[in-house]
Structure formats: structure tokens, C-alpha cells
């Protein structure tokens, strides 16, 4: 038997204690780090979808009473606890294309024999999905609220093939799936609904969280598209409007059509002409030039109330010889009426008109292209919310129909198939333009606007006592359009019915019998404002 001294006995006991504690310590470390494990549940997609919960599984039952969960980057979450897992749900969805780190502390086994003091796990969120962009007339739209025409083609492209049933299109907040045509690959769709001038379109693609790709990923990008639709006004190739044209101020010159005023100058080169009864069943013209102005225009005569509407609708500048006191009140304004951008010879100090020796007064007042364009620069008022169409191929719309005759204006038309234009006659006499060597005017589009009218309430002509005619040019009404030997029976539109002339800045536009906007063919457009019952 080996006997130890008391000192050696104490040392031996100490060594034995260290071994036991050490063994105990070794057992505890093993159970903490190898006996209790945490792991992230695998996702079938290889990433976490934006609305999916993240699950942390434990290989033993746990007591999660004191567990602490943190995320980097931070996110608002809801944590559901069970005996062997944590379910972490995003309150507002995970950020797409982001990497998150989950940190757990104070995870204890259910018997409190083992614990995880600190653990981290990493997961990736799905890429961005959904609307990749909008394409309008072949151009990708990256920002802003584009201006479009009624015939514009709008397409929505997606990042992936979509679950078509999950995409709920809206147009101005109303269901619009019936106005969308999907591509066979379900990666794009075309909007087929009507685009109406001056009626913005807000195109949506569904409710966040509900729209999904064909693979089941949640669409994260559902940005709406807002477009502003403006009417298209036809141009005459003679005015030089091309694809690079930027709107200029419309210049509106009033021209006489009394017998002694003929033949006139400047008719054939206008983009649009409005014809209307002035008084005594004699018609008068307002010639509208969007771009280039011809050498001579005339004879220039006085404004009528219809000119107040046309000036404001086209955001143009009116040019005339004078006006009655009643009409001048509306042109010159005064509380609450605004001053209209008008240049009147009787008050002109800028040499914008001249008298010719080959016609008798009052049919001898003229203006010219350089003077009109100088006035456009001097007035510097900009242009209106419409587009002017460059020359383009004919639209072929309408049904074959004989050319019109407008008895109230003493005008008839003959269609010329060779030039695909209409030849006008004043009481049987060809209407001509001396700027073209006295050739007969060729009209591409003949339009009849049926409008309300009434007595303006004042004398327009002091000599004969004729009262001024007031045409109600705002709102909408029946219209016929002739072009290329065919006719459309539809409607005209210009602002809201009853809107005062000075409050309307919507240019005129037309629809067919189905309410579809009509963009007129290129060439001289002649519009007859015909009073209902005239």
C-alpha cells in the first residue's frame, strides 16, 4: 500500500477535480455545439420569394422563450415559434435581389441541457420580377408620362413568362383584361383599348402580391403607366410639316368669299380651312397654317364669333380686317373676358397687311407669308396641346359614297380619282387659288360639322342690318368625313358642351360610328361648320 503525505493527498485531490471539471466541461461543449443544431429550410426555387416565410429548423426540441432574432438588413417581421422551428414572416415582404443574415441568440434545448448562444444563417431573395417596361410605338419608355396619339400602340413587356390568370389589368382603375392581347410566350401584352384625346390613360397590371410569374415568383415591379392622349391635326404637304416638326403657333387668317372677293389667294396651301355663313347666306373662310405660310393671302375680311372658338381651340393667333363692336367685345375682352391673341388691321401698327390695286375695297386687303410668320414670332405664344401629323399613307377608312354638296354654303364637290381629291365649286363656278395660277383648289378631306347656332344679339353689318351668327363650337355633334371617294358618318368633338370659348383649349377631333378616333388623311382639309337647320 502506498501512503501519501497530507500535502501530496491535497495535490492529488486537486488534480482529480480538474479532470472531472474538464470532463464535465468537455461534455457541455459537445452538447452545445454538436448536439443542438439550427439550419435554414431549403427553398424549392433556390431562393426565398418576396412573400415567403423563412424557416429555421432545429434538430432537437427547443425552448424558445428567451430567443432573440435579428435581421441584417433590418426588416419588420413576425416570428412564430414551435418546439422545433422558428417561422419568420416578412410583414411587408422581403426586398428583392437582397441577401439577408438572420442572427439567433439564447436558443436552449427543451431540457435546458444544451443551448446555442449565437447562430447566423444567410438567405437570398428572388430577383426582381414583373413589368420590365412599356413600349409605345416601338419606343421603350423609361420615365415620365408620355404624350401619345389615338393610334399609338402600347405594349407591356415582362421580365418572365407570366401567369396570365394572375395579371389583372386596369384602365383608369377599371378592369381591362378584355382590352389586352397576350403574346403566345406570355412575356408581353398589347393594350387594345381606345385612346381618346384629352382623356389620360392610367394602365395598371394588378394587385401587389397577387401577380405571379409562370414559375410562381411574385411580381415585384408593377409600376403603372400614365399617358396623355392628344388629337392629331392633319397637315398639308404644302406646309412642309415633316417627322421632325415641332409645334408652332397656328396662324388663322380670315378670308372673304363674297363674289367680288374671288378668286382668292392662299387657299390651297392652308393645312385646314373652316367655312361658315357670315351673313346674307355668304360664306367666309378661316385659313389655318401650322407651319409654312404662302406668299399671298387674301382678301382678308373681318372676324366673326366663330373665330373666338378657333383661336382658343388651336391656341392660335387670329388675323382679320376688323369686326363689329359686338364681336370686338369678345376679341378684346374685359372683365371677366380675356384678351384673345388677335391682330386686326383696323388697329394694326406693325405693317402686317397691305392693299392691292387689282381689287375694289373692301375686298382689297391682303397679307403675305413673311408678314404672317413675323407676327407669329412677335406674338410668341407657343402652341396648343395637339400634334400635327406629317404626311402619311391614306387610311382607307369609310365606305364608298358620292361627294357632298353643302347648300347653305352654295358649295358642291366633284371627286377626282386621279388626284384622289375633291374639287369645290361656288354656285357652279370652280373655286380657285391665284397662287397656283388660277388652278382649281384640290381638297383631300371634306368635313361637315353639324353645330348649334343662334343669333348673337347684335348687328354685324350696319349697311344691311344683318345680325351676327353665333355658332356653338364646343361639345360634340354629328359629322361626316369624305376622303378618297369614301365617307365616314361619325361625330366631331371639341371640349365639353357649353364650355365658353375662352375656357376651351381642346382642338377638334373626330370619331367614326363606333366611337373610334379618326386621324384624317394628309392634305388640305376643308371643314364646313354647318348650323343645325341652316
Largest β-sheet summary: 13 strands, mixed
| Total strands | 42
- Helix tally? 4
What is the typical, i.e. mean, pLDDT?
Answer: 92
**Percent range for β-strand residues:** 35-45%
Helix content: 10-25%
The residue ranges in which pLDDT falls below 50 over 5 or more consecutive positions are 1-33
C-alpha end-to-end distance = 143 Å
Instruction: Name the shape in a single word.
Output: elongated
What is the CA-atom radius of gyration, in angstroms? 40 Å
The assigned structural class equals mainly beta
What would your notes on this structure say?
10% of the residues lie in helices and 38% in strands. It has 4 helices and 42 strands. Strands 20, 21, 22, 24, 25, 29, 36, 37, 38, 39, 40, 41 and 42 form a 13-stranded mixed sheet that branches. Strands 10-9-12-16-15 form a 5-stranded antiparallel sheet, with no helix packed on it. A 5-stranded mixed sheet has the order 11-18-17-13-14, with no helix packed on it. Residues 1-33 have low confidence and may be disordered.
